[in-house]
Design goal:
heterodimer; A: 572 residues; alpha/beta; ABC transporter transmembrane region fold; Rossmann fold; 2 domains; five-stranded parallel β-sheet; four-stranded antiparallel β-sheet; 18 helices; 59% helix; disordered N terminus; B: 540 residues; six-stranded mixed β-sheet; five-stranded antiparallel β-sheet; 15 strands; disordered C terminus
Chain lengths: 572, 540
């Protein structure tokens, strides 16, 4: 089912760019390759020198001659471990640094898409891309490029070294190495073609099911609908396991083939070696080297055996990330160093001047869909209080999002302070116009965290004052006040409390124009009236402009009221 | 952290056979390694010292080929068996977790966090079951055999190996002891990063409104960086332990090689023994070295599984489903209240009669929704639900089968309008149309696709869709009670009137409706009004 959830196909160039983001800086990367190659070379060298040492000793040469070999045996033994340790330290840190960059890139790419572009993405899928797929990208340097380069270098060096003793044996060894490389590439490729490419997608499907079960547990329980979702999870998990098993199957097969090839290579080398020995091409002790070195070369190559398979998994994950981000700038999501005027240091920039807003023949709607309202003419002056009414589903909230600059105007003109809103940066527009959404989001944290989001640096007493304004303080005080945890999505508060907390948050931000979308839904009627009066009073204090979307308000409390029914494009 | 976790093996009962199988396969592998090493050594001696031609060596070469092929095959099977074991354990644990995700146990927990534990956390167990544990078994089988063979061939090499080998487990226990805390911190950072990401993505619009996107970007970078630091801290220790394991094994190979060399020169040892021992010594260390190499990955899984077990152990105390109450007779709630730790909501007693609309009103925060939540078993509470001769004790049972419910939050899912209304039931076109009409949504196309969290419809439409969903269930399952929580809060009065007309129609069919509302327009059309206040209940 999740295959159809793919957002859109992205060009390979975008995918490659994401992969480039995962690639550490050249210096750090080369250092890792160098150290890894050195460690692999030491492993082969250890086998080479010890095989030579033992077979040469059988001929009982002068002990002084052997001392040199003994020293190199010890050097290689130490070098192998030391280089490997250093390689792992250097390469992992470099690779992980890039993951952080990719994660911020994803977030920055998502931000401008809210609220229009996020609708079709499932949250479990999103999380899966953000965590698992990004983590998969670390394999590109660590489990694809590093081992492949190190193995390639060592294989080439060994073939050369053996070639200096017996070129025939070197050719045989090379033949087996090429065969090994072919198997390592072909086996995962065939398996991959049979559909294991879906690993990341299936992983996301399982994540979706789990998140659905957890996030909607109440509805599912109340409608006895948990069982089908559980069944779906079981099926998706089964598919995921089948894919993972198939990948593992190919990995085991490559590993087993490497073992067999290593043994056969040693035997074949023994054959050519014995031929060349008979012709007197080299001294007897070298024969042991010719037979045993291929064994250790294959050992080293074995670590690179999974590289082709990992390469395919990385490509797939990069594609899924690219689907989220779209084309990204070359630098990715590196965050500009905070300048002295960064928003979190001077929390409330001076409130923008508001000199009026105007819609002329405007149409509003969600991108990709028919506009819901057409031919709107609105003229809103500073300090004005405007009421917007209309039937449910008419597009009131869509209009609110458009006025707040979160959706583009579909037709006609939207002027803010006499300037087309489209020409203003989104941030500048939203500094003037605030919106308290119909279904506001509270972040998992304390009441204080949620309020400070709107106005960082506000004192506790000012926060308490605002909470009193919206009639929430008496509810919160006995439960911990500003330190009360609101829970995920405000689940630890009642519906009315969530609404009033979001109102307090919107009022704190000090926007010159504030749009309140159904501020009194979920609030009891006695309080609703008082709340609206308070809201308007607070707004009056700051000479704020208020656009109220509501069906609860008596019209005489506002300066003007507009019924949006007249502008509807469809009759619902 | 211990190399074994007893609970893991207990939950992984069905993986035992696979472990046994992997033990047998490990035995075969070890035998192959010994045969191969011996025949290669014989081969080299024959070729080098006796100058035989290869084809005249006969037996050793056949033995070597046979051994290497058998080893390849058993290595493959061994891998497959380990993998199958991991698969089984993981799926069974994931299923157990998924089944335990009830509203009651999720209260106060982040759903993102839960899905991370059951998703990624369990995936981390892969490494434990498919690589670490089988290697542990293998090292228990292969290493002693190889050491015995070494000992029988050359006592001194056997001795060197035996002296260095025990250092490895000792060192690993030390490492485990030191990594436990950092490992815990790493896993927690990962969970935080996931939950935080989902939270801010859900609130992206809010962030944009308040101009806090840039700031949030920095927060994500910080958390991601902390995750990297924590991971690196774990890795540094685990690399160090890998380093020591490697040093120990390669140095013993070097020491053995040098000692063999000197004794060969002195004529105290023959070349065959020397080569054979040289080939075997690394094989004594390989399984243990692999255990060390998998240690970090395996520990991540063990860490995650601790959370899994915590969740599984915290199960229980779930209310039992009660048989549906009889259709058509009045249902009375007696002193129903929710218990949130020490806080108890005011008791609510009222009678819901078929054909009647009952309004449940009261100031916000007095526990109106909690009454519904107790009836549905979402939160712990007490009180009785009575109808005729039947009584449901809400301390131990829930009445979901008696109730169709529409909560304050629509909680629509991705899918079509039809799928949302049907939710877990087979739905005929007729019922679908009727439910949508009763919910004042006659014109909403049934195949309109909704996005995540119900995007694609307006707030008021979502609210009515949730109503239609409850109606459809009531009509199909014939549940006597319809509980609606703030069903018209986002509706204009015209639409509200249409919704109320729908209630009347349902009531006339014999349903008993209970409606939590703040709206006077709604409360005034109800037949009974029940006001819930903080201290006591009172009829108005």
């Amino acid at each position: 089912m999740s295959e159809s959830d793919r957002v859109e196909t992205v060009p390979d160039e975008v995918v490659r760019r994401i992969e480039r983001l995962a690639q550490p800086e050249t210096g750090r990367f080369l250092l890792g390759v160098l150290l890894g190659g050195a460690s692999a070379a030491c492993a082969v060298g250890l086998m080479w020198t010890s095989a030579y040492l033992i077979s040469a000793s059988a001929l009982r040469p002068p002990i002084l001659f052997l001392m040199m070999v003994v020293v190199s045996v010890r050097f290689f033994a130490l070098g192998r471990a030391v280089f490997r340790y250093l390689e792992r330290l250097a390469s992992h840190d470099a690779a992980f640094r890039m993951l952080g960059v990719i994660r911020t890139t994803i977030f920055s790419a998502l931000a401008p898409k809210a609220p229009a572009g996020l609708g079709r993405l499932r949250r479990g899928d999103l999380l899966s891309r953000f965590m698992a797929d990004v983590d998969q990208l670390q394999d590109l340097p660590l489990r694809v490029r590093h081992p492949a380069l190190a193995a390639g270098t060592v294989a080439a060096a060994s073939v050369l070294g053996i070639g200096m003793i017996s070129w025939r044996t070197a050719l045989v060894l090379m033949g087996f190495l090429v065969l090994g490389g072919l198997c390592g590439t072909l086996v995962p490729w065939t398996v991959h073609r049979r559909g294991s490419g879906a690993l990341a997608i299936q992983r996301a499907a399982v994540n979706d099911d789990l998140l659905d079960l957890a996030a909607r547990s109440e509805v599912l329980a109340a409608f006895s609908a948990t069982a089908p979702v559980l069944r779906g999870l079981r099926e998706d998990d089964h598919l995921l396991q089948r894919t993972a098993d198939r990948l593992q199957y190919s990995a085991s097969l490559t590993g087993a083939l490497a073992v067999v090839l290593a043994g056969l290579a040693a035997l074949a080398c023994a054959w050519t070696g014995s031929l060349d020995l008979g012709r007197g091409f080299f001294d007897g002790p070298m024969l042991a080297v010719l037979v045993l070195v291929p064994l250790s070369v294959f050992d080293v190559i074995g670590e690179a055996a999974q590289a082709p398979q990992n390469r395919m998994l990385v490509r797939e994950s990069a594609r899924r990330i690219a689907e989220l981000t779209g084309p990204v700038p070359a630098g990715g999501g590196r965050i500009p160093e905070p300048q002295s005027s960064a928003p979190h240091e001077s929390p409330s920039p001076p409130p923008a001047q508001f000199r009026g807003m105007r819609l002329q023949g405007a149409a509003v709607g969600w991108p990709g869909e028919e506009p819901v309202l057409r031919g709107l003419d609105l003229d809103i002056r500073p300090g004005e209080r405007l009421l917007l009414t209309g039937r449910s589903g008419l597009g009131k909230s869509t209009l609110a999002l458009t006025l707040a600059g979160l959706l583009p105007v579909r037709e006609g003109e939207y002027l803010l302070n006499g300037v087309p809103a489209g020409s203003l940066s989104g941030q500048r527009l939203r500094r003037s116009i605030g919106l308290c959404e119909q279904t506001p989001h509270l972040f998992d944290g304390t009441v204080r965290d949620n309020l400070l989001l709107a106005a960082p640096g506000t004192s506790d007493s000012a926060l308490r004052e605002r909470l009193r304004n919206v009639g929430l303080w008496s509810d919160l005080e006995p439960r911990g006040g500003l330190d009360l945890d609101v829970g995920e999505n405000g689940e630890l508060l009642s519906g009315g409390q969530v609404q009033r907390l979001s109102l307090a948050r919107a009022l704190l931000a000090g926007f010159p124009v504030i749009i309140l979308d159904e501020p009194t839904a979920n609030v009891d009627p006695e309080r609703a009236q008082a709340l609206v009066e308070d809201l308007l009073r607070i707004a009056d204090d700051g000479r704020r402009t208020v656009i109220l979307i509501s069906h609860d308000v008596v019209r005489d409390r506002v300066d003007a009221a507009i019924d949006l029914d007249a502008y509807a494009t469809a009759s619902l | 952290m211990k190399p074994f976790d007893v609970r893991l093996l207990r939950y992984a009962r069905d993986s035992r056979w696979f472990l046994a199988l992997s033990g047998v396969l490990g035995l075969i592998q070890t035998a192959c390694i010994i045969v191969f090493s011996a025949s290669i050594s014989v081969l080299i001696v024959d070729l080098f010292l006796h100058h035989d031609a290869l084809w005249r060596t006969g037996t050793p070469i056949l033995l070597a080929i046979g051994a290497v092929c058998l080893r390849g095959a058993s290595a493959w099977a061994w891998d497959a068996a380990s993998r199958a074991a991991a698969t089984r354990v993981k799926r069974s644990l994931r299923e157990q977790i998924a089944e335990s995700l009830s509203p009651r146990m999720l209260r106060g927990r982040s759903s993102a966090d839960m899905s991370v534990i059951a998703g990624r956390g369990l995936d981390a167990l892969d490494a434990y079951f498919s690589r670490y544990l089988p290697q542990l078994v293998l090292s228990g089988i292969a290493t002693p055999i190889v050491v015995l063979v070494l000992w029988s061939q050359d006592v001194r090499s056997g001795l060197i190996t035996i002296i260095t080998l025990p250092l490895i487990p000792v060192f690993m226990i030390l490492v485990g002891y030191f990594t436990q805390n950092v490992q815990q911190a790493e896993w927690e950072t990962l969970r935080r990063l996931s939950a935080h990401f989902l939270d801010v993505v859900s609130g992206l619009t809010t962030l944009r409104i308040f101009g806090r996107v840039r700031h949030q970007q920095r927060v994500i970078a910080q958390v991601a960086d902390r995750y990297r630091e924590r991971t690196m801290r774990v890795l540094r220790v685990s690399f160090l332990s890998g380093f020591v394991l490697e040093i120990l094994s390669t140095l013993s190979v070097a020491v053995v090689a040098v000692s063999i060399g000197t004794r060969l020169v002195a004529g105290q040892l023959d070349l065959f023994t020397g080569l054979f021992v040289l080939l075997l010594v690394p094989e004594a260390f390989t399984p243990i070295r692999m255990v060390g190499a998998q240690y970090h990955a395996a520990q991540e899984g063990v860490q995650a599984s601790t959370d899994v077990f915590e969740i599984l152990d915290a199960r229980g105390a779930e209310p039992q489903p009660a048989e549906p109450l009889e259709w058509g007779s009045p249902v009375s709630l007696q002193k129903v209240c929710a218990e949130y730790g020490d806080v108890v909501t005011p008791p609510c007693s009222l009678e819901l009669r078929p054909g009647e609309l009952t309004a449940l009103t009261g100031p916000s925060g007095t526990g109106k929704s909690s009454v519904f939540a107790v009836l549905l078993g979402f939160v712990p509470g007490r009180g009785l639900l009575r109808s005729g001769a039947r009584t449901i004790d809400l301390r131990s049972a829930h009445a979901r089968s008696t109730i169709s419910w529409a909560g304050q939050r629509p909680e629509l899912g991705p899918g079509t309008v039809r799928q949302n209304v049907a939710l877990g039931m087979d739905l005929s076109d007729m019922v679908l149309e009727r439910a949508l009409r009763l919910a004042a949504l006659p014109d909403l196309p049934a195949d309109r696709v909704l996005g995540e969290l119900g995007s694609g419809v307006s707030g008021g439409q979502a609210q009515r869709l949730a109503l239609a969903r409850a109606y459809a269930r009531a009509l199909i399952r014939q549940t006597p009670l319809l509980l609606l929580d703030e069903p018209t809060s986002a509706l204009d009065s015209e639409t509200e009137a249409a919704v109320i007309a729908g209630w009347r129609e349902l009531a006339n069919e014999g349903f008993a409706l209970c409606i939590i509302t703040h709206r006077e327009e709604v409360a005034s059309v109800c037949d009974v009004r029940h006001r819930l206040v903080r201290e006591e209940t009172a009829h108005v």
